[in-house]
Specification:
Two copies of one chain form a homodimer.
Chain A: H1 11-22, H2 28-35, H3 39-51, E1 55-62, E2 71-79, H4 84-96, E3 100-107, E4 112-118, H5 121-132, E5 138-151
Antiparallel strand pairs in A: 2-4, 2-5, 3-4
Chain A binds a DNA duplex (30 and 30 nucleotides) through helix 3.
Chain lengths: 158, 158
DNA sequence: CAAGAAATGGAAGAATCTTCCACTGAAACT
DNA sequence: AGTTTCAGTGGAAGATTCTTCCATTTCTTG
């Protein structure tokens, strides 16, 4: 009574997930060898993991600085009112802001916590002044400039 | 005087990066077609992007809930002292905590902001009581439970 | 304008994918 | 127990893709 939602994943599925989380471009043949299954079985298993949504996608990670996105900023946001409509409007607007990489509704001193990538501080100031504080229902924001990325997007611990 | 660090990436490189960021398992043949280049050229370009560090890796994204990690928590941390040694010790310890997915040194009310994934609140309480407040130099923590993931790990806007 | 350097696309053998099929082993039922 | 069903497995093989070589084109530089 503790495997909660891992029930339909056996040992082999978990190995496949771990391997692909670390190396998404692994060849099916290589993956099969690591997981100790025939290529055919591995192919079927992997396909199922994709189709049933255990793997939501495979993405290349781009070095942010290489594409002119050297600055990372976290922003706490407090809304004016706490009505369902306020939240919905805010979230919809946030979805359209491509600089916002993460957005989470939280319990605590803020309503939302945002993770934002821009070129530099000047760029952030512009974004803040022209877009962030203009988002629907925003009462107040608190900015946390990231001075050092200690750990970034680590692998899931399963 | 504004392309900063994108100088060595031409239009084609950028298209490759965009395509692979969205679909990391794209076949070289498909990628070549999308980018409008021969397979050979596409292969060479892509290889260079990996070798020179523009692409830092390709990873499958696993649905957290599917592997028993349904709870997301953000934690602000304040350290006792602000000496280089304190920071180094804290960062080293954080690297060993697999539940910590992100860790950033920030300017503002906190010293660090952590992003943590666990099974549920009970699990977090255990982690908090046994590991987080025991990290070297921690004076205070502030917890933000995530009630809704509005946007998660969006693609880089370049 | 010529010479060298850098990048390109075609071609082809090697490797991989993807599907089909016969087989195994574990339920489920009589 | 006997046997029927069925989900899951690995081998095999045609289709596809990778990866490298090389001749050609394009861009630089003097």
């Amino acid at each position: 009574m503790e495997e909660s939602s891992t029930e339909t994943l056996d040992r082999i599925d978990v190995r496949i997930l771990r391997a692909l989380q670390a190396e998404g471009r692994l060849t099916n043949a290589d993956l099969a060898a690591r997981v100790n299954v025939s290529a055919a079985t591995c192919h079927r298993r992997t396909q199922r993991l994709f189709e049933e949504g255990y793997i939501t996608g495979v993405r290349a990670e781009i070095a942010p600085a290489a594409v002119g996105l050297g600055a990372l900023v976290m922003v706490g946001v407090v809304l004016d009112r706490s009505t369902p409509e306020s939240f919905a409007a805010f979230e919809e607007a946030v979805h359209k802001l491509k600089e916002v990489l993460d957005c989470n509704l939280v319990a605590g001193d803020f309503d939302y916590l945002l993770k934002i990538r821009v070129r530099d501080m000047a760029d952030f100031n512009k974004l803040h002044g022209q877009k962030l504080i203009a988002l629907p229902g925003v009462r107040q924001t608190r900015t946390f400039f990231v001075m050092k990325e200690v750990k970034e997007n680590a692998r899931l611990p399963f």
